[in-house]
Amino acid sequence: MNNIKVRQAIKHDVEKITQLFFDTIQNINIRDYSQEEVDDWSSWKADIDKWLVKMSEQHFAIAEINNQIVGFCSLAPDGYLDFMFVHKDFQRQGIASALLSEIENKAIEQKNDLIYSDVSITAKGFFESKGFVVERQQLKKSKKKELVNYRMTKPVADLIIREIKPIEYSFLKEMLYQAIFVTDKKVVLPREIIEQPDLKRYIQDFGQNGDFCLVAEKKEKLIGAIWIRFIKGYGFVDNETPELSMAVLNGHRGIGIGKQLLTTMIDRLKNKRIKRVSLSVDRENFAYEFYKKHEFVDYLVLENSIIMTKELIET
Q: At what angle do helices 14-27 and 48-57 cross, to 10 degrees?
C-alpha cells in the first residue's frame, strides 16, 4: 500500500527536492507552457543557496512514499504558499491533497487569516477544487521569461483535521456514544450502552493494525472523529473492506465538519490504496442522504438499517 508520509524537509533533502522540481516542470507543466518557458522556470534548480534560504525561512515539508520523496510544499510566515510540486511519476495519487492539508494546518498554527499563492495554469484546477478563488490572472517573471499564472486565495478556517494521537483514543468512547442513532430524540441512552459487545468492538483496544482515525479539532478541543476498523460489525461486507464510523459533538453539527472529516478520510484511504469502505446507517437517519451525496451506495438493505459502500479505487 502506498502510504504517504509528510515530514519537515531538512538540508540533506535539497538535491532531491530540486530534481523533483525540475522534472515536474519539464514533464508536467510543459502541457501548459512552451519549452522556452519551462526551461527558464526549471533553471531555478541550480540555485541551491536560494533553495536553502527558502527551506530555512519557510515551513518546508516533503511527502514520501516508501522513503522516496514524491512531493514538497512550503508556506511563508505571512501565509504565502510558495511551493507545491508533485513528482512526475506520482500524479493523481492524493499527494497534493496531503501536502495542502499540511499547509492549511500550518496556516492555522501561524494564525494566518488567508493562504495566498501564485498558481500555474497546470495547478489551477486542483486549487479551485480545494476552495481557492482566483483573484486575478497575471504575468510573473521567472528568470528571463514572464509566465502566466493566477493569484489565488483561500481564507483560513480555525478547524484542523488531523490523525488522532494515542493519548486521545479515549475520545472515541464519546464518539461511539454520539454515533448511536435514536429515532425518539427525547430518549437518552445510558452511556453504558457502548460496553455492549456489538458496539464495543468499534473502539476496543484501538490502535491495532489497520485502525485509522482522524479527528476534528477547534481551538484545541476535539469536536469530531471519523475512523475505520477491519471488524465484523453492523456494516461488515468482507475481510478486505474496513468499516467506517463517524460522529460530531452536539453543538458543532450542521456546519460542514462531517463533510470535511469524510472527504479528508476518503483522500487518506485512497492514499492507503484501500479499495472500498463500508458503513451501516439507520433507515431513518438523516446521515443516509448525506452518505448518498458522497457517492456511497446501498449494498444490503436490512429491516432497520442499510449497509452502504463506496468504491475508492477503480478496478
A: 110
Boundary (domain end) residue, out of 98, 132, 155: 155
Sign of CA dihedral 179, 184, 190, 192: negative
Of 155, 181, 203, the residue that ends a domain is: 155
**Angle at 183 (CA atoms; ends 178, 189), nearest 5 degrees:** 45
Alpha carbons 170 and 203: distance in angstroms, whole number: 9
Q: Encode pLDDT of 49-68 as tens digits.
A: 999 999 999 999 999 999 99
Residues 213, 80 share a domain: no
Q: What is the pLDDT of residues 169-185, one digit of tens each?
A: 999 999 999 999 877 76
Average pLDDT value for the chain: 92
CATH number at residue 143: 3.40.630.30
Tell which residue, 121, 76, 122, 72, has the closest CA to residue 100: 72
Same domain as 147, residue 163 = no
Range of the domain at 273: 159-311
Give me the number of domains the chain comprises.
Answer: 2
Task: Return the exposure string of 86-98: e unless at least 16 CB atoms fall within 10 Å of the residue's CB, then b.
Answer: bbbebeebbbbbb
For the chain, percent of residues with pLDDT exceeding 70: 98
Same domain, 164 and 300: yes
